[in-house]
Amino acid sequence: MSDQVDGRSGRKIVVRLYASIVVLAGVMGFVLGSIRPENLQPELFGFISLPPTPFGVAVYGFITVGVGLGLLLGLVMYVSERVDETTPN
Fold this sequence. Notes:
Blueprint: E1 4-5, E2 8-9, H1 10-35, E3 43-44, E4 48-49, H2 54-82
Antiparallel strand pairs: 1-2, 3-4
Helix pairs in contact: 1-2
């Protein structure tokens, strides 16, 4: 069977959705950093301190969401390539 339906690959759609979510997390981080709530101290992975500026919080959003979703997406892609598509009847 073909991996494409109507000229679109499922993998490409998922990767585009992943990229959109990561960009959205960065944009929302920038907005949150612009508001400057009290006690805002972003730390990557619990030990890398970032400045509580709009760009610092945007970087925090990009990296944390990118790594978290990226690991899950990579795991799903790894498993999907190794699972036999035929099921016993």
